[in-house]
Structure formats: C-alpha cells, structure tokens
Amino acid sequence: MAAPLTLVLVLAVTVRAVLFRSSLAELISERVEVVSPLSAWKRVVEGLALLDLGVSPYSGDVFHETPLIIYLFHFVVDYAEIVFMVTDGITAVALYLAVQNYNRNVFRKQKYALEANRYPPDCLELMRSPKEMFYIPLKVATFYLLNPFTILSCVAKSTCGLNNAVIALFILSTIKGSALLSAIFLALATYQSVYPLTLFAPALLFLLQRLYIPVNPCRSSFWLFTLQYGFMFVGSLLVIICLSFFLLGSWDFIPSVYGFILSVPDLTPNIGLFWYFFAEMFEHFRFFFICVFQINVFFYTIPLSIKLKEHPVFLIFMQIAIISIFKSYPTVGDIALYMAFLPAWSHLYRFLRNIFLVSCVLLACSALFPVLWHLWIYAGSANSNFYYAITLLFNVGQILLVSDYFYAYLRREHHLTQGLYLRRKDGSEATLVLK
Amino acid sequence: MGLLSDPNRRKALTTLLTRLNTPICVVCYLAGIAWFMGLAFEPFTLRTYMSENAMGSTMVEERFPAGERALATGREFAGHKRKAGGMPVDWLVKTMQDRGLEVFTQSFSRTLPFPDENKERYMVRGINVYGILRAPRAPRTEALVLSAPCSPDNSNNQAVGLLLGLAQYFRNQIYWAKDIIFLVNEHDLIGMQAWLEGYHHTNISGMDYTPLQGRAGSIQAALSLELSSDVITSLDLILEGLNGQLPNLDLANLFHAFCQKIGVMCTIQGKLQRSDWDTAEGYTHAVQTMMLMVLKQASGRPWGDHGLFLRYHIEAATVRGVNSFRQYKTDTTTVGRLLEGMFRKLNNLLERLHQSYFFYLMPSLSRFVSIGYYMPAFGLLATILLLRVSLHCLNPDMYKSWMLQFKVICCSPLRFISGEGTEQGWRVLKLVALLYLAVLLGCTALINFSLGFILAITLVPVAACVTPHLPKAVSALAMVLLSPGCTILYCVFIFQELQEAPVSLSEGWMLFLSVISQGILDHSLFGSLVYPLLALLVYPCWLLLWNILFWK
C-alpha cells in the first residue's frame, strides 16, 4: 500500500506548492476561518522578530504560541512552507499507520468473537471483511491530505498543522501500545493547546484494554497503571514546560499562552462560539461565563468515557471532534483532523440517519462564510449577527454529524449483542426509536 | 428532534416528498414568479420614510441664487473644453481657485484589454480636477463629494457650471461641518475609479495614476450630477452601482423629500409615479419600473458615476436632469437649491447612513420593497432545487446503488472522465449539480438578489427537469434557449422594451454582443463580478446539466 500512499502524498504536496506560489496564499492567510489569534503565521513572524531583537516574544500581546514553536521556527523560518507540507505528510502517514493497526486489532477481535460464537446468528451482514477494510487507511490519509480545509490551513501556514501532527503521533503511539511515547506526545499536545488534556482518558482506556487490565476502581492493577501513565504524562509536561522556561528565560509564556486560551480576551470573529457571546457580555458576568464555556469542553469526557469504555478509539474521535467544536479559537484545520477519521467508520453508513442533510449544511455554510464576511466587513450591508448565524449553523451541523456517528456506532454494538432483526416478545418486528 | 429521529414520521415525510414532488415543484415555481410580480402591487409595498434622525426635518430655507451665473460658467467651460479637445485643466484649476477652493489634479492612464466600441476608446489618458472646500469651523475628519463628469461631447456642461456655482455659494456659508470635495472627472467611470483608488490608497484595477496631493478625510456621502440642458422638466435618480450594490435607502428618501419640498418632478428609472395603482395600467407601470431596476441591478455595472463609491462604503447616487416635452420647466437655480438642501442635510450626519435598508427594490420613488419581502420569491425557487435533491436522496431503490456509483466514481475517476458512465451514474451527477446550483444561486442572491433571481428563473427548471430519458432534440433546444447566454439576450430585449425603445432582432443581437463586451471590460476595469460568475461558475453547472441530458 506504499505506492498509492506515496501517490497521494505527491498529489497533496503538488496542490499545496501550486497554491503557495499563487496570489491566493496571501488572501487565504488573512481569512478568519483559517487562522486564529493563536495560530496565525503573521504572529509567529512578529514573535520571531521580537526574539531577534532580544525582547520577549510575548510582550505586546501579539504572539500566543508556545516557546518550542518559536524556537523551532527560529531555525527553519526560511523553509516554513516545506515545514508545513512535511507536517501534513507526517500527520497523514501517522493516521495511516494508526488506522491500519487499529483495523488489524478490530479484525482480530472480530475473528475471535466469531470463533467463540458470541454474535447472534443474523449479524453476519454486520461483520467486516478484510476486503472492505483494506483501503480504509489509504482513504483516511487521503481524506486528511486532500481535504480543502487542510489545504487552506497549510497554505495559510497556520500552526494548527503542527498541533494536528502532534495529536496524530499521539494517536499512533497509543494504538501501537507504547505508553511512554503516548504520554510524551499527549504532554506535547496539551502543552500546545490546553484541550488535548481530555484525550488522557481515552488513551488510558486503550492502554488498559491492550494490557488486559479491567477498568475497575476496586482493582489495584488499574490504579497502578493509571498512576504510571499519569506520572509519565505529568512528568513529560513538567519537563517540557521547564525546558521552555530555560529556553525563554522567563515564565511569561504561561499567562500569554494558557491564560490567553482560557480567558479568551481576543474577540476576533472566527468559526467558534465564544466571540459573539463575549462581545455582548457585561464585565460583571464574564468570569462566570468563561468558566461555563470552558467547562463545557472538558465536561463531555466523563459521560463519554463511561459509555465508550470498551471502544477507546471511537472515544478519541469523539473527543477530538468535541474539542474542535467547543474550543475557544477553532479553525478549519482542527475540523480537518476529526473528519479524516470518518472513512474508518464507513461500516456504520447503514445506521447513519441524517448524514446527507448534515453534509449539505456543512457545505452550504462553508460557502456562505466568505459571502457574509464580505457583506459585513466590506459592503457594510450586513452585521455580525449574520456571520454568527452561519457560525452557529456550522457548529450545529458538526454536532449533528458527531452525534449521528455516535448513534450509529452504539446501534451497531447493540445489534451485535441483540441481533440485527429485532423481535418483540411476541415475535413481531420491532424498530429502534431514539426518544 | 422528533422529525429527525422518529422513523415512522420520517417514513411518512419521505413518502409525501417522493409522491408529490413534481406538483410541489411546479407550485413553488409559479408561486415564486407570482410573488415576485406581486411585489410591485402597491398595497404590498411600504411607503418610504426617513430613518436617520439626523436628516429629519426639512425646515431650513435654501437660498442658492446664482443659477444664471452657473449656466454662463457652463458655457465658458464648454468653450474651453472644445478648445482644449478634452478636459480644460488650467481653466478649471484657475476657476476653482478663484472660488476659494484648494485645487489639486490627478492624471491617470489605462490601456483597456480590448477597444471599447461603445465609447470608442482603447488607451485612455486623462486628468481629474478636484477642489476641496475646507469646513470653516469643525475639525476636518469627514467629507462629502459633489461630482460632475467631463464628457467629451457637448453634454454635462451645465452640470460642471452648476458645480462651480454651488462651490462659490458654499464657500460663503459658515455652517459646513464636513469638507466638501468638488470633483470633475474625465472619462467618466475610469476617471472616477482612478480618483477613488488614489483617495483610498488601493489599486485593485491595475490603473496607473499619480497619487493625490490633497485629501479631505473619510467620505460620508457622494452625489454625482448629470445636467445637459439649461432648463429641465424632471430629475431622475440613479441608484444602481457596481455589482448591483445600492446606496442606503435614506439617500433616495432624502432626494424624494427635497423634490417634494421644492416642487421638482422626480422620477426613478425615467418613469414618473402614477397614482392609479388599482388599475391595470398603474400596476404594469409599477412592474415596469421595478423590472428596470432588477435588470439594471443584475447587470452588475455602475449606471452612473456614483456606482464606484458604494464599494468603499460611501453612500452615493446620481442625479440626472431630464428635459422632455412637458409644460412646467424647472430652472438651474431650483436644481441648485435642491442640491444645497441635500448637502445641508448630509452635513448634519453624525455617522454614516446605516439606519435604513441596504437591500430593496423600488417600484416607484415613494414605495419600496425590502429584502424581507422579496427574498421569499427567491426562496421558493431555491426550494425546488432542495425538493429535487431530497427526491434523489430518498429514493430507496437506488440508495445502495447510489453508494456504489459514488464509490465507483471516486475510486476510478478515469472511467468517469472518459464518459463511460454506468446506468445510474447520472443521478449522482444530477445530485451534485443540484447542490452546486443551490449553493451558487444562494450566495449570488445574497450579494446581488436580481442576478440570483434572474439566473434562478431560467436555470432552476432546467436543473429540476433534466434526465437522460427526455427526447434529446427538443430538450437540447430547450436547454439552449434557457442557457445563461440566451437569458442575457432576453434581458436585453426586455430592457429595451421597458425603456420604450424596442429594437429589431439584428439591433438586439448587436446590443447583446456589446453587453457581453461591456461585461468583460467592467470586470477588468472595475472588478465587476458578473462576467467571472457567469463564465467560471454558472456555465460549468449548465454544462453538467447538458452532460446529464446526453448521458449514455
């Protein structure tokens, strides 16, 4: 499968290179849907300029990325375009290998379950065959590389691409089973933007499952492993933060990066939900609503982990989706990461109920974003309400997409235990209804 | 979430949509057309009203006295223009300086991509002359613009004369809080584009111009004057700007209020308002006025020199004096008083005009239709596309085969491109075409409603009805007759009919060709979006539908 993957990589690099050299690159790098105050390339360049002058890059409230990023670009700023293309390539290859490994595990478990006769007899059509699963890793890599959102994000040189690469490497190392590497990449991802902290739970669940440790608070093996993994994670995070401190020489990156992400001072419009609310809010209530909005991102981990504790990889997908919908400064690059996973769940297609409506909504909203921005900012005929309406619709579409896949996944699991053709007690046909 | 999650209700809805699809589509189409036509019916429209409080009462008395002197200045200007063979720069500079303005000039040049046959120019070179009247008391942060074009032939001399006369009168008043810029632009729209680009430090059209030496602050409003006769019978207001953008309705309301106060007859689209709205003639008159506005807006070209100001968020309109065969004539002094009144009101503005509507249609100067009332007409047409999409998606037999076709098409693009389609492959293509058309028309209607609606009238029936099973020859002819090119041809004929200057077939064809060349020129000179939209986005959709018709 290396040849088709190489072909896709070459095609992706060509598309990005062509766009880099065209006049669209500047236009794209200014779009608010593609770059945010956290990830804009202009701000990285500004931070580098301040660093060269010997001043802290965080003075002046312009630069909000982490010190490791700025030191990385200190060395490779002349090759920035190549760095971003390579980053996209790394993400795609990592996702490819991760999904390949995951599919192998899934198929093996299915084989054992079939041999142990654990599935009801009418579930044969729900079984996944190697033929169907053969092309999925390639499709995942293609979905990521050739997604217009990813291409836009790469051409705009948004550091979101680097965040995606770290998360993809985290997923790869978790699925391969290496707890140390997983903890290190998770620490790196959390260090970059606070929200991947919620991926601790699915990673832990996956590694526990892999080591055949039951998820039971009464068992000591559970707590032993949790403490081990937690210690590795916290330790790596502390090491990375202290490394940043030593590189930078001061602690002012903490309020500039984490304070900025958590307290949302910059209300530039973007595709997220925060800016409009906080533009309208009275100062008195600001702190309360910041807490509410930020807890909203982290809160779904608990119920989802309880429900999906047997299916940690799907939980990772759901968590990444929730992060990219509810985070404080989302961009289209974040969306591209969880959309890349959708081919991995293509066997759920028959249970999806609203996929067509949702994809039409997402497509129409993506087309309407620049139109309403133009009408608001340039023509002066619309106002922020129109743009926020499209933002809301876009996010509602994303939430419907994620919840539809969630429903389809759970329904398939239900059918795998209860049988495909449901019968009531008296033998008549029954249908599943979500009330 | 009952509708989305309850399978029984979903099944009922899907059977309803599948069985009644075609009747609902036909009803929607007719309802859309009827709604649009009904917009001109007077009880369905609203009377215009002044929304901006700062422009409220009209209690000030206008006192401009020097109409005859303005006409004499205009005759002098005409003489110097003939002698100089173009813009008499030195005379204009000296005259403006004598009136106490700060005068500056700007030279510009542009080579058109191909010769413009309507105006007979190819390599355009010119000079704009403008004088700034500085506000005597207030800080100089805002400005108003009065402009008159310097036309190569013998027209608009009186406009320049009146402009200079007003400049002299305004100079002696103490109540100005904003600077007033008196601009005489050469080569009408090209000169105006050069001036605006120089003023705002942009260069979107690739024009060569010298930078402006004098500036006056951010422009709040602009009026362009076109006056070619010593006496007029009516004043025509022109609102349509580049890409169908319209100024704030308050500017039209201001003009109408002053016309009524001073007693000048005012028209829009060259048509006077009738009072017999309940008769057939009255209604057709209103429909004609509204259709003229729709056609002018859909063309995307600026219909007066004011059209280019709108892009910079400056509310602007063109006032054109018309001398027709009516008994009551208005002299230049009265026109001067009207402009003085309008400028005094605009002087009172504290912020840019934003209170009234930006999107409207006007069946007459005192009645308007806002976006909330006219958008459902387009919505009904767009619903047809969505109904067709749902029909294709909810068809249960082809659900599985649809997925198969999609996979086939995605995994073997070569087979798809070579045209060797499968039996049901055209359904996927039709689905894509319908969705693409819906999104495209929706985005177009948001920016330029008239263009979106006119395209929808012809393209939606084609997209909804086309299948490979129709009789090929008849449907091919129908598709060509409903293509965007033929739509432009019909619009040209209808426009000429509405202007009461009907053309024969050959003249109409020449006019059609000139309209297309004007569209290309507008795109390259001013950045009009109609030509790239039609060529790059609408035609591929039509070609997709053509491909579906001839699917093997």
UniProtKB/TrEMBL annotation, chain A:
GO CC annotation, single: GPI-anchor transamidase complex
Annotated metabolic or biological route of this protein: Glycolipid biosynthesis; glycosylphosphatidylinositol-anchor biosynthesis
Keyword Signal: yes
Segments crossing the lipid bilayer: 68-99, 166-188, 194-213, 225-251, 257-278, 285-302, 314-342, 354-379, 385-407
Membrane topology: Multi-pass membrane protein
Signal sequence extent: 1-17
GO biological process: attachment of GPI anchor to protein; GPI anchor biosynthetic process
Name used for this protein in its record: Phosphatidylinositol glycan anchor biosynthesis, class U
UniProtKB/TrEMBL annotation, chain B:
Location within or outside the cell: Endoplasmic reticulum membrane
Bilayer topology term: Multi-pass membrane protein
GO process annotations (BP): attachment of GPI anchor to protein; GPI anchor biosynthetic process
Keyword match Membrane: yes
Membrane spanning residue stretches: 20-41, 371-391, 433-466, 473-495, 529-551
Superkingdom, natural source: Eukaryota
Keywords: Disulfide bond, Endoplasmic reticulum, Glycoprotein, GPI-anchor biosynthesis, Membrane, Transmembrane, Transmembrane helix
InterPro entries assigned: Gaa1
Gene Ontology cellular component terms for the protein in this record: GPI-anchor transamidase complex
Pathway: Glycolipid biosynthesis; glycosylphosphatidylinositol-anchor biosynthesis
Quaternary structure, from the entry: Heteropentamer. Part of the GPI-anchor transamidase complex, consisting of PIGK, PIGT, PIGS, PIGU and GAA1. Interacts with PIGK.
Protein name (record): GPI-anchor transamidase component GPAA1
